[in-house]
Amino acid sequence: MRTKLTKLLSLLVLLATTSCHELFDLLDELHSEEPKVIEYASGLNTPFGLELDPEGNVWVAEAGSGNSDGRISVITDQDEVYPVIEGFSSVVADEEPTPIGVSHMVLQDHTLWILNIVEGRLYWADVSSFQPGDTPMQASELEFQDIATFVLEYDFGDADTGESNPYNLTIGPEGNLYITDAAANAIIRREAGTGALSVFALIPSIDNPTEIGPPVIHAVPTGIAFNGHKFFVSTLTGFPFPKKEALIYAVDLEGNVAVYDKGFTTLVDIILDPDKKPVVLQFAKFEQGFAPMTGRVVRSEENEVILDKLNYPLGIRRKGLKTYYVTSAADGTVTKLAF
After folding, report:
1. Which pLDDT value is given to residue 98?
2. Are residues 273 and 151 in the same domain?
3. What is the value of pTM for the model shown?
4. Labelling 135: which of 145, 182, 242, 322 has CA 20 to 30 A away?
């Protein structure tokens, strides 16, 4: 009787301290027979990376339409979208299927760190006092650091590509930021106390298994996640973007790089499941260009497809045990997946 009463009281406490969305997420996770997929938000302007705050709100980086209309928005648990920061530069690039601008972000205490791949900059904003519905901040008013110039001036030796594309980031030991540069094939470390930049690791090129393009192709590191002991880095691979040749790398705290898993296609983001194992996001299959509706969410070690037929997904984040949010740049949506 006492055990039953304890369980009942625990459930009541959980219900009393859980928001409606969190409660629905818990119920969805308990119902694990079939994945449950719903459209969580729509009408977004090229949604890219995602972040979650302690209140359960979903933050999304919108790259914009190519007319300097990039922004950071927050989606509340009432499914309402509010702009937080506006006026980020964005462009339409010939080789890209969607406009580009702000890409990924990470929330560290009350500081939101934001990358803009057009400018090669790292921006940051204090969002501690922001409330949905407040007048949006302007990107021109934010502090920033020029990541691309540091990378372009760094001597990589034979591995130098002469390009920079700060793409994604995560928080590592001692609060330092670790940034993937998709063009330099490198991970850049930013010291928390000083802002000093250094090259933490280089991601090696791979052999091209096809007869199209160069014999060796770039790794193109994209997503990065830290499990408390090492980093996991997903890769897109360069042209011709061969199928099943994208790798997940493990990078230790000394910057040593090793292959962790293989057999993937055009990976653009990575997140960890509750067991600290990677779940990765496939952007698209490359046919005569990147084919629409060929994106996937994949569990790494089993190479298990959790969700497919996504339209140019670019960002993924996990909430709770088995609830994931995924952007679709082409559709302007955020999808919620529970499995």
Report:
1. 80
2. yes
3. 0.89
4. 145
